[in-house]
C-alpha cells in the first residue's frame, strides 16, 4: 500500500557513490572514485582513483570545488572510510522495501513517486540542502501534474544519519516546508555526535593503528563532517560541560567549528519558530548501545566517555541519545520511536521498516513481536587481518537491580554476500559475554547477535566491521 506522495530517501555520510566525468565526456558512473564493496574498499582508497585525492580546498564554505566529482547513486553495500564516521550497511534493503510497497522511480516518462537522492557527502549540508530543492520540486510538480489523487501530493523524506540534516536545512531554510508532509529520520544526529569531534581532533594518521594511509587532511577539509560536531555541551571543562565554541578545540579550524555551530543553531531557531516542525517529524533513534557522549581534551587529543558524570544515556553506538533527539525535546519525548539497534543497521532493521511503512500509509501494519531482552554490543569498526575480532556484549535486565537474564546468545559473522563465516555461542558471566573470531578474511563483514533459537526472547542487534588486509612488506 502506498500514499500518493513523493518519497525521497537520503543516505548518511559516505552513503552515496561518487564519480568523475571522463575527459571524453563519458558519465561519472563509468569513473567511480567512491563505490567500495567488500574486498574493493582499500583499492579505492589507495589506488589511482582514490577519493582521498579529492580533499576540498581551504575556505570552501558552502560552495562546490568544481573538481569534477559528481554523486551517482546510493550505496547498495557496506561502506566505510576508516576513521571517518561508522561502517554503514547499504540502502538497497530500504529502497527495495519501498518499491515492494508500490513506490516507483520515474521510468518511461512516468513521474516518480520514489527518489533515491545521492549527494556529494564531502560538501556542506547547506549546499546539499539547496541542491535537494532543485531535484525534489521539479519531480513533485510532475507528479502533481497527473491530477486526480496526485494533485495534492507532497514530499515525505526518509533520512538516515546525516541525510536528516540535509532534509532539515531544505525544509526550514530553502522553502521546503511548503511542500513537505513528513520528515522521518533514522539515527540522525539532530544535535551532533561526539564521534565526529573525536575523529576531527585526533585524525587518522599514517602508521597509527592498522592503517597505512592518512585520512586526516581529507577529513578536516569536509564541512559536512564539521556539521556533525555536537551542538550540545559535551566537553569536560572545570567540573562542568562546554560547547565546542566555548573552548579551544585542538588541531582543527576554529572558523569551521564556529560555522558548524551556526548551522545547528540556525536550524534550531527556524524549527522553534515553526510549530509544524513537530507535527511533521518522526524520529527513529537507536538505543541501549554503548555510545560516546562526552569528551575530555588531553595533550591535544580527544578522549571520549560514554557518560555525563554518572549518567549513561546510551544511543545507537555512534550517535548518543543526547545527540539523536532534536526539536528541543527531552530524551523521553513521545516524538521518538526507540529501537535497540546499532547506527549501521537502522535503515535495514525490519521493525524500523515496519514503522516507516505505517508512517507513510497511516494504516495498521502487522509488526514483528518485540521481544523482551535487549543486547548491548561493542563491535570494533576495524581490525587488521590476522588479528582476532572480539565482540563483547551484555544482556540487559528487565528492571534495574534485577539479575542479568540467563539466555543463550549466538554471535555470527557474515561476509558481504551473506555467507556465514563463523558463529559462536559464548558462555555468559553475570550477563556478559565475549565472542572471539580469528582468521577472518579481509573485507567488510556483518556481525549479528541474536537468540540461539527462533523462539528466543533476545532482540537481535547487527553491526558492521572491516577487516583490513595486512600491509605488504
Short description:
With 473 residues, the protein is α/β, with parallel strands linked by helices. It has 11 helices and 23 strands. The strands form 7 sheets. A 6-stranded parallel beta sheet has the order 7-1-8-9-12-15, with helices on both faces. A 5-stranded mixed beta sheet has the order 17-23-22-19-20, with no helix packed on it.
Secondary structure layout:
Elements: E1 6-10, E2 16-20, E3 32-34, H1 41-46, E4 69-74, E5 79-81, E6 84-88, H2 92-100, E7 114-116, H3 125-144, E8 155-160, H4 163-173, E9 180-186, H5 194-202, H6 216-220, H7 223-226, E10 235-237, E11 240-242, H8 254-273, H9 276-280, E12 281-286, E13 294-298, E14 301-305, H10 321-324, E15 336-339, H11 350-361, E16 375-378, E17 382-384, E18 389-395, E19 409-414, E20 420-424, E21 432-437, E22 443-451, E23 461-468
Helix pairs in contact: 3-4
Describe the structure.
With 473 residues, this protein is of the alpha/beta class. Helix content is 22%, strand content 25%. The strands form seven sheets. Strands 7-1-8-9-12-15 form a six-stranded parallel β-sheet, with helices on both faces. A five-stranded mixed β-sheet has the order 17-23-22-19-20, with no helix packed on it. A three-stranded antiparallel β-sheet has the order 3-2-4, with no helix packed on it. β5 (79-81) and β6 (84-88) form a beta hairpin. The longest helix is centred in the first third of the chain and has 20 residues, at 125-144. The model has no long low-confidence stretch (mean pLDDT 89).
Amino acid at each position: 500500500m502506498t500514499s500518493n506522495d513523493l518519497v525521497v530517501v537520503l543516505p548518511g555520510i559516505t552513503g552515496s557513490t561518487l564519480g568523475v566525468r571522463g575527459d571524453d565526456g563519458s558519465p561519472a558512473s563509468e569513473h567511480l572514485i567512491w563505490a567500495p564493496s567488500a574486498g574493493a574498499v582499500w583499492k579505492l582508497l589507495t589506488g589511482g582513483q582514490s577519493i582521498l585525492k579529492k580533499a576540498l580546498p581551504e575556505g570552501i564554505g558552502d560552495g562546490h570545488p568544481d573538481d569534477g566529482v559528481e554523486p551517482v547513486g546510493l550505496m547498495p553495500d557496506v561502506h566505510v572510510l576508516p576513521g571517518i564516521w561508522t561502517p554503514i550497511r547499504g540502502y538497497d534493503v530500504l529502497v527495495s522495501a519501498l518499491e515492494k510497497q508500490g513506490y516507483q522511480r520515474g521510468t518511461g516518462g512516468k513521474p516518480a513517486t520514489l527518489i533515491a537522492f545521492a549527494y556529494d557527502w564531502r560538501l556542506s549540508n547547506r549546499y546539499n540542502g539547496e541542491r535537494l530543492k532543485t531535484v525534489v520540486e521539479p519531480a513533485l510538480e510532475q507528479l502533481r501534474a497527473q491530477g486526480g489523487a496526485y494533485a495534492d501530493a507532497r514530499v515525505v523524506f526518509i533520512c538516515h544519519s546525516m541525510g536528516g540534516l540535509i532534509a532539515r536545512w531544505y525544509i526550514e531554510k530553502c522553502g521546503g516546508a511548503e511542500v513537505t508532509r513528513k520528515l522521518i529520520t533514522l539515527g540522525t544526529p539532530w544535535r551532533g555526535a561526539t564521534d565526529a569531534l573525536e575523529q576531527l581532533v585526533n585524525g587518522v594518521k599514517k602508521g597509527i593503528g592498522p592503517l597505512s594511509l592518512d585520512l586526516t587532511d581529507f577529513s578536516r577539509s569536509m564541512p559536512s563532517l564539521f556539521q556533525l560536531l555536537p551542538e550540545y555541551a559535551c566537553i569536560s571543562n572545570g567540573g562542568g560541560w562546554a560547547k565546542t565554541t566555548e573552548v579551544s578545540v585542538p588541531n582543527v579550524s576554529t572558523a569551521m567549528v564556529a560555522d558548524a555551530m551556526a548551522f545547528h543553531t540556525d536550524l534550531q531557531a527556524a524549527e522553534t519558530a515553526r510549530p509544524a516542525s513537530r507535527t511533521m517529524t518522526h524520529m527513529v533513534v537507536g538505543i541501549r548501545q554503548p555510545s560516546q557522549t562526552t569528551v575530555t581534551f588531553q595533550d591535544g587529543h580527544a578522549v571520549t566517555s560514554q557518560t555525563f558524570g554518572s549518567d549513561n544515556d546510551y544511543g545507537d553506538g555512534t550517535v548518543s541519545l543526547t545527540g539523536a533527539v532534536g526539536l528541543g525535546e527531552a530524551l523521553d519525548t513521545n516524538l521518538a520511536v526507540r529501537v535497540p539497534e546499532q547506527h549501521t543497521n537502522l535503515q535495514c532493521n525490519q521493525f524500523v521498516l515496519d514503522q516507516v511503512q505505517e508512517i507513510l500509509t497511516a494504516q495498521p501494519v502487522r509488526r514483528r513481536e518485540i521481544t523482551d531482552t535487549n543486547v548491548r554490543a561493542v563491535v570494533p569498526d576495524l581490525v587488521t587481518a590476522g588479528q582476532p575480532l572480539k565482540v563483547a556484549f551484555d544482556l540487559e535486565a528487565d528492571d534495574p537491580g534485577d539479575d542479568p537474564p540467563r539466555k543463550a546468545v549466538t554471535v555470527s559473522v557474515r561476509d558481504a554476500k551473506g555467507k556465514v563465516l563463523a558463529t559462536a555461542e559464548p558462555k555468559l558471566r553475570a550477563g556478559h559475554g565475549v565472542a572471539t573470531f580469528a582468521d577472518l578474511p579481509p573485507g567488510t563483514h556483518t556481525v549479528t547477535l541474536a537468540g540461539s533459537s527462533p523462539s528466543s526472547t533476545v532482540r537481535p542487534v547487527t553491526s558492521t566491521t572491516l577487516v583490513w588486509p595486512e600491509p605488504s612488506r
